[in-house]
Design a protein that fits this description.
The chain is of the alpha+beta class. It is about 15% helix and about 40% strand. A hairpin with a 4-residue loop joins strand 29 (about 505-515) and strand 30.
């Protein structure tokens, strides 16, 4: 190529470069194509004499995973240099410019925007909207004050712009000051739903609602901008200890409007009223003597409540748990949630009461005893209770018979039944009398053996005869002595020999001076006893 041609070519390249330099002005937005992906940045062909670079700091790891060579990309020209640095590009500023345009449009048209809550800061939350961070004041988070803002982090929400301050130099990296509100969105939605609800809100209407709050006395329900109260007494036809047994916050259910005051929009709701009151027909479905199955719903000190059908409960009183005189605690007979069978005793529609029985599932023990035993039969039992006047013995059929203190021994003077019997001791006894209607049975232990006073004692102990005996007890009116065979006699105080020391357990000789078989008494004397004289 000659000298002139070289000069012409150099002049042309210079003019072309100047043209491209003028076109790629700082701050202009152009489209390019990704030609290389490097560690220090993304290389982009922008139709310039040298390729441009977007710093890698503008890309996240996720961005790098989606970028491919050959992709088109819109960038902003940061700097153009002919000294070798080439063209420095920015993708972030383009995104911010577009975001700003979107924000301005949303502000002018009062549009809602979607953003993601990224962090909690002083006074509120940070919401990222298309790459731009906005400030959401705590007072604008919800209709009601929110105590815990942390649980909202990561959630996507709809907001509306309250304030937008333009950056000083558009496209140069200045982030706009952006304040948004979620509360206005919620208020508008509430008002819109409220209008819809008011249109259908009337007594007797069935409406769906969401449980907002649960208290001891009832449940507050959001019907769609209007709150209604479901009192605890209107939850179920059965006994309700606490509303939380039926509802949880956030649950959606269908409720019946019992009363609506149009002026104040005060709404009273019902839940149990969606079904007929089971007590209205209880006397038609249940009668005395019927066997019914039900679920144990409550256990108290005085009995067990059984739900025989939804909303209809009966009480098994503690007296109807078992035929024994003293039942165990009701919790020993059933567990909450158990399905048990009971017998209906009576039903009162007006009082809304149903009495049930567990013990009547089996025959009445006294009826069994009346058929099984008769006077004179020997029985086996266990001592259940000891009193001053006798001991109660429990038979295998579950009934108690009384052994009176006078029926413990033919010959011994028993001061207290505990001297002869112990609680829990197994004993044999004879039935002396039975009265099933009055639920009474008299037992005797001494009757297990023949009455020694009828023949044995009179034959063995004669007037004037002397016997050795052991001192049992010294009293004011004399001394009780145990003679041969366990027979007791009394040394009258006038018949005591003062020369002989008497102590419990000591043995002495005595003379019989009186025998009364009718009163079952033997009188003794220490005087003129020949054996003592020897």
């Amino acid at each position: 190529m000659d000298t002139q041609a070289r000069q012409d070519s150099s002049e042309f390249e210079k003019m072309y470069a100047e043209t491209l330099t003028n076109r790629l002005e700082r701050g202009s937005v152009v489209k390019g194509k990704i030609v290389a992906i490097r560690e220090d940045g993304i290389v982009v062909d922008v139709k310039y004499k040298s390729e441009g670079v977007i710093p890698s700091s503008e890309f996240s790891m996720e961005d790098f995973s989606h970028i491919r060579q050959g992709d088109d990309i819109e960038v902003l020209v940061e700097r153009v240099s002919d000294s070798g640095e080439g063209v420095i590009l920015s993708r972030d500023k383009v995104l911010r410019m577009h975001a700003m345009e979107k924000l301005e449009e949303a502000l002018s048209k009062n549009l809602a925007l979607e953003g993601k809550i990224t962090e909690k800061i002083k006074g509120g939350l940070v919401v990222n909207i298309s790459g731009v961070n906005a400030f959401l004041p705590a007072s604008q988070v919800d209709i009601k004050p929110v105590r815990d803002l942390d649980h909202l982090i990561g959630q996507k929400i709809s907001v509306r712009i309250l304030k937008l301050t333009q950056p000083r130099q558009a496209g140069q990296g200045y982030t706009p000051s952006l304040v948004v509100s979620r509360r206005v969105i919620l208020e508008e939605d509430r008002d819109r739903r409220k209008e819809n609800v008011i249109g259908v809100l009337k007594d007797g209407a069935l409406l769906k609602g969401i449980v907002k709050n649960i208290t001891d006395y009832g449940v507050f329900v959001d019907l769609g901008g209007i709150d209604g109260l479901l009192h605890i007494s209107d939850i179920s036809w059965r006994r309700v200890n606490h509303p939380s047994e039926f509802f949880q916050v956030g649950d959606e259910h269908e409720f019946l409007v019992l009363k609506h005051e149009e002026a104040s929009h005060k709404v009273t709701l019902g839940y149990k009223q969606k079904k007929a009151d089971p007590w209205l027909t209880v006397d038609q479905k249940y009668s005395s003597g019927m066997r019914v199955k039900g679920k144990v719903v409550t256990i108290t000190d005085y009995g067990i409540f059984v739900e025989v059908e939804e909303g209809l409960e009966g009480l098994v009183h503690v007296s109807e748990l078992e035929w024994v005189p003293r039942s165990k605690h009701p919790s020993k007979y059933a567990v909450l949630g158990d399905e048990i069978e009971t017998v209906v005793i009576n039903v009162s529609k007006d009082d809304r009461r149903m009495s049930l029985s567990l013990r009547q599932l089996s025959p009445k023990p006294w009826s069994v005893v009346a058929e099984k035993y008769k006077v004179g039969d020997e029985i086996k039992g266990k001592v259940k209770t000891i009193t001053d006047f006798g001991a109660f013995v429990r038979l295998s059929e579950g009934v108690d018979g009384l052994v009176h203190i006078s029926d413990l021994s033919w010959t011994k003077h028993v001061k207290h039944p505990s001297d002869v019997l112990k609680k829990g001791q197994r004993v044999d006894a004879v039935i002396l009398s039975i009265d099933p209607e009055k639920e009474r049975m008299a037992l005797g232990i001494k009757q297990l053996t023949p009455d020694p006073w009828l023949s044995e004692i009179p034959a063995k102990f004669k007037l004037g005869e002397e016997f050795i005996g052991k001192v049992i007890k010294v009293v004011d009116f004399g001394v009780f002595l145990e003679l041969e065979g366990g027979v007791e006699g009394l040394i009258y105080s006038s018949e005591i020999d003062p020369s002989i020391t008497l102590e419990e357990g000591s043995e002495i000789w005595v003379r019989i001076i009186k025998i009364n078989t009718d009163d079952r008494k033997i009188g003794l004397s220490m005087k003129n006893v020949k054996t003592n004289e020897n």
